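thread: overnight batch results

M.L. [08:02]
morning all. the overnight job finished for the chain we discussed friday. pasting input first so we're all looking at the same thing
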Amino acid sequence: MRVLHLTSGNMYGGVETFLTTLAREATLVPDMRSEFALCWEGRLSTELSQLGTEPHVLGQVKISRPHTVVRARQALRELLTREPFDVVACHQSWPCVVFGSVVHAARLPLVLWVHMAVEGKHWLERLARRTRPDLAICSSRFTAEYASRWLSHAQIEHVYCPVSRPDVAGCDTRAALRQRLNTPARDVVIIQVSRLEAFKGQRELLQALGKIKDQQGWTCWLVGGPQRPSETVYLRELQATARTHGIEDRVRFLGERSDVPALLNGADVYCQPNWMPEAFGLSLVEALHAGLPVVTSGIGGACEIVNGMCGVLTPPGDATALSAALARLIADEHWRAQLGAHARLRPYEICDPTRQMRRIHELLASVHAA
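M.L. [08:03]
and the structure it wrote out:
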């Protein structure tokens, strides 16, 4: 079975991490060949190429410029005529709106991959619903519950993303990494790896750390660089927040990084205190893989990942509860180790690549056979 995955390609986050995982773990399901079509070239296209899967580039699209839509649709039409695909999957509403009509005209099954828990009220979601996908695959039970409210005509399934075992071969040692990042060797490092979007709680993390600034022995690494002008503004606000709370000398703003597994391996606690629910949370699973206790808000897809055996769930927006959890983890090495030992086991229970890749193949094969 040959599957074409459509996405924009101009950003990099959880969706793009999932797509590179499909390419990386392709050998687990020999009967399913995944290919990718993008509108923009960037980090995603580079990583797919490095994995031996050269993406099809359809041309940059802005819906506000109809000629770019027409041009990209023609490029996809030619690709589907030239190559014998069995299923086309659109990741998020945008590519479904732009390309759904072309897929239907080619008489191919159309799958909408829903990576966000949304109400279906945005104009893109309303238009995506009109494309009438044959199947909607959601990233969690939480996401599927939301999707059922606006995709009632479609078959809805949920599949946890496969998450590859991190490869830290050839990376700096923990001591060398900390030295390079100006971090004391014995400090407890609290790390967050995410897009610079306010709802992911970077500001809340800094505010909570401000409450324990008198507690010695910790450093914070914030990983993620701006990809849009609004994110550049947000980064400056975060830097100002660190200064206001008197912790700027203990916070490292590391920007966008390609060595995230090494950074996680060099840290001690993962914290991402979302104040809005995450559809799933790949970064949480990656942190668990590294043996890090995870502190996050008890909302959304995070509740399907983190439990009391591997981390701490705190109420969203509760800086006092968050700072208390972090303070205890910093002080209690035994508790950190206990949670960390269970953390390493948790990804295999929910995101084992072999099991999840086979589940994806099963669902796509069913819509192809229908």
